Amino acid sequence: MARGSAVAWAALGPLLWGCALGLQGGMLYPQESPSRECKELDGLWSFRADFSDNRRRGFEEQWYRRPLWESGPTVDMPVPSSFNDISQDWRLRHFVGWVWYEREVILPERWTQDLRTRVVLRIGSAHSYAIVWVNGVDTLEHEGGYLPFEADISNLVQVGPLPSRLRITIAINNTLTPTTLPPGTIQYLTDTSKYPKGYFVQNTYFDFFNYAGLQRSVLLYTTPTTYIDDITVTTSVEQDSGLVNYQISVKGSNLFKLEVRLLDAENKVVANGTGTQGQLKVPGVSLWWPYLMHERPAYLYSLEVQLTAQTSLGPVSDFYTLPVGIRTVAVTKSQFLINGKPFYFHGVNKHEDADIRGKGFDWPLLVKDFNLLRWLGANAFRTSHYPYAEEVMQMCDRYGIVVIDECPGVGLALPQFFNNVSLHHHMQVMEEVVRRDKNHPAVVMWSVANEPASHLESAGYYLKMVIAHTKSLDPSRSVTFVSNSNYAADKGAPYVDVICLNSYYSWYHDYGHLELIQLQLATQFENWYKKYQKPIIQSEYGAETIAGFHQDPPLMFTEEYQKSLLEQYHLGLDQKRRKYVVGELIWNFADFMTEQSPTRVLGNKKGIFTRQRQPKSAAFLLRERYWKIANETRYPHSVAKSQCLENSPFT
Ligand code: GCB
């Protein structure tokens, strides 16, 4: 995003959007409307991991041709869930290769008989490479976990006699290679005195467990054959009016009419328009504000789009409603501005990780996490280190939690990972991330990578290209990547809008020496700011802490050490907070699972909450700080109170 140029984009927005996307079609979140129906396929699926030596028996024996149980034993597997921690079979926990899911479904008669209906199969995410068959017919392939993909399966279901029984088979491969995102390597260990023949391990270069499977919802939904395929909205503000630029893509026919209405939170129409693109003006606008920044945060309008079309089979109509938050985002040399006011990110890094479901989407966990975020007084998080479920993003819009939306560009640690195939795939992934999340007011910045080896020349070129591509996809938001390189050596920093820095003083360096943190942090900030004159976010800092370990004076791994480390960081952050440091995100919101290693005790324990979402002492410290910062930075100034804990012993 050009610096301080939010207003200029107001005029250019509709022209610029959509010019760079190479993807076919939109990826609107499925919703029920007078013209659309949904059928969730969550629940128990049949499952088998292919333990054959080459992991290809499923393809050799064509398991997709017949019901899965006919080709061998199956087990029950819940969807959504990671498959790793569900069974008692340790081989499945560490499995690398193809796993097979299958589910049968009977469709409503109308879906199979009404030829004006289009039936779509949508998979919320499949980590990491997926092939989908419907009734044995190869239907869809997708590379990359954490993002949705879908296929029009009308041709497959609108044939033959009733009832239409559908068999959906999905083969998923979790292998990470130098050209996947995240990348990884497969290492064959050939010393036969130590390893059996064909023995291999999956090496990864990131610090979380490579959970896999159908980790988000799978569903079927319908649209009419002429349908609203995509909507892109950008917003800006002119005096006290909000401007909503919309662009709508319609598929299926060129003979259609579009009507657009913008409704306020009380369902009153405040503006309307027609056609595939236009600008809606909202006098006396209620802006979308981040949580705690304003007494009326997260205000959402609804953009109702109505399509009527003529088809050879008669008229059809389609309805889709998109939540819209009107806000502006801009970056200056030293500030991050939302609605023209300085915004300070006081928040967390997260992972989609909890107990036996691994990275499987879960409503209770989602709501609990957001309640904890609000308890904490956090106003932001980064989707470290991959895009989170769409429901999470919707919640951020509704609660006013600001998001740095990170793609799975994590673990780009080796020179061989900066190759042309990876670059092309990385750009495609950014297209998919932007396509999915572009309309969320909560998303204010894209992060294209976490801790790439950005001191390498090849990484500099690679990051430059991915960042430029992301900016061309979405000129309305800032773009960054998260660095842990030295300021003098980093080859990617020239291309970002905001510098995001991870540092672990007194943890991975000078461990135990808390007294060094303030000096080292000041040096870090001053060096980077002097060189780049860009706002800085401390995007990670923290300490491994086993809940219940205590020692005073503090020693590493105790709750006291985590608290003291945070306190020292906070003193350092406060020195620069009103100058050019625009945010702090603790590592991590909650403990999470990693690969086994001598430095990890049942996972990474840098959470301020345990993996079960119970607070460590540091959570109370951070809570006090975040509410204090919120009260200082609130606009217009007034004291905010914790909403959820009026009479709590903690307030
Ligand atoms: C980092 C990484 C994060 C790790 C964290 C740690 O810099 O970005 O993925 O989990 O450090 O705890 O080591």
TrEMBL record:
Regulation: Inhibited by L-aspartic acid.
Reaction(s) this enzyme catalyzes, per UniProt: a beta-D-glucuronoside + H2O = D-glucuronate + an alcohol
GO molecular function: beta-glucuronidase activity
Organism name: Homo sapiens (Human)
E.C. numbers: 3.2.1.31
Compartments, as annotated in UniProt: Lysosome
Family membership noted in the UniProt record: Belongs to the glycosyl hydrolase 2 family.
Keywords noted in UniProt: Glycoprotein, Glycosidase, Hydrolase, Lysosome, Signal
GO CC field: lysosome
All residue ranges annotated as the Glycoside hydrolase family 2 catalytic domain in the record: 329-630
Reported function: Plays an important role in the degradation of dermatan and keratan sulfates.
Signal peptide (UniProt feature, chain positions): 1-22
Metal-binding among keywords: no
Domain Glycoside hydrolase family 2 immunoglobulin-like beta-sandwich: from-to ranges: 226-327
This protein's record includes keyword Transcription: no
Name recorded for this polypeptide: Beta-glucuronidase
